[in-house]
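Apologies for my clumsy wording, but are you able to produce some protein sequence, whichever is easiest, and the tokens describing how it folds?
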Amino acid sequence: MWTLTSCNTDGTKSYGIQKGETTINDISVNRAEIEEFVELLNRCDASEIHAYELVEDFLGK
């Protein structure tokens, strides 16, 4: 299951995704946007093998 991650860099909170051993941080500062992305990944049962391509597609939308 994909989950939301967060980190605080230089006073700015950013969000990412995680599943198993795969973590991608600092995708967006918009929590709602990443929560929606995580829901989509889980609904589609997205594989962590394609995580970076999925994030690339998400950011290119």
Q: What stands out?
A: The mean pLDDT is 95.
